[in-house]
Amino acid sequence: MPGPVTQLFVLRGQVDEPELLQVVRDACAALQANHSCKLTLDCAGVTSFTGKALLLLGWFCNQTRSAGLSLRLLDLSEDIIRTVPDRLVEAMIPADLRPQVMEAMTLGAVRKGSHRACSFSNN
Question: Directed axis angle between helix 98-112 and helix 78-92, to 10°?
Fold first, then answer.
């Protein structure tokens, strides 16, 4: 008997909320059709995620984890991961406060002896 089916979704270019929302919808439909399928996002062709897309991706990862499922992210480049804090600040912080937040993030990283203020982990 074959193992669970892998449902692969390919993301390319700059990923914004509408593109990722469509992938989330398609992934939910795939799960409804086959509860045991494994969801995989191929991020090899992604050049960037907008802040709103990252918030949606985080929400979707949390929802799949809460349901006892997993969401696998393939080939999420180190360049993309390095931009996550900046994109999230752009999505969540008013423009007039961004410089202070970015400065505080940089100071926090220096105090901790870290080269990154935030970390991101693939599921």
Answer: 130
